[in-house]
Amino acid sequence: MTRKGPTTVWERFRRFLAGRGLRVTAPRRAIVEAAFATTTHFSADQLLLWARQRDPRVSLATVYRTLGLLVESGLVREIELGGDRKVYDPNVAHRPEHLHLICADCGRIVEFDHDQLGRLLKQVAHELGFEIVSHRLQITARCERLRLTGHCPHHDHHARPSTTRSPRRPEPPHAGA
């Protein structure tokens, strides 16, 4: 984990756990380190593989429990892709107001920020007598390239959803890194 981002995230999560009377365990720490060593949206199964590179004792049950705590703490966002498919977004800790565009054909997730859209959401909330505390906007659309050419480089019915990545943090973690 880098000093600035994930250490801050780890400290926030550690305080969250302490506030609930929960212990910091080695498997839980391995899961959190793995989750925040990437900008890629990931599934619970992917996180399990990454966390086991750090601590082979990590179980899938512990991954699911820890993901639930990370979501509850606001450090990770769960993204529903339809059916029972879910991925988790580790970027919410650093960019809490970013938005998602999800391809209905290939499942690719593109993160984006849009100042005008943010202002519009605040205006709508204000006009209706609300003040936004947080928001989550998820747009599902069809890939234009697939529609125009009949081919999308991301389209594979058997592939897991991919993410357009930000260059700010390294790719999925490795045990020796």
- The end-to-end distance, rounded to whole angstroms, is 9 Å
Instruction: Quickly count the helices.
Output: 6
Number of strands: 5
Percent helix:
25-40%
Q: Could you tell me the mean pLDDT?
A: 76
Order of helices and strands: HHHHEEEEHEH
Residue stretches low in confidence (pLDDT < 50, at least 5 long) are: 1-6, 157-177
Radius of gyration: 18 Å
Q: Which CATH class applies here? A: Mainly Alpha
Strand order of the largest sheet: 4-3-5
Give the full name of the CATH homologous superfamily. Answer: Winged helix-like DNA-binding domain superfamily/Winged helix DNA-binding domain
Strand proportion, as a percent range, falls in: 5-15%
CATH architecture classification: Orthogonal Bundle
- In the CATH hierarchy, the third-tier topology is known as Arc Repressor Mutant, subunit A
In terms of structural class, how would the helical and strand content be classed? alpha+beta
Number of domains: 1
Largest sheet: 3 strands, mixed
- Could you say which overall geometry the principal axes of the C-alpha atoms support? flat
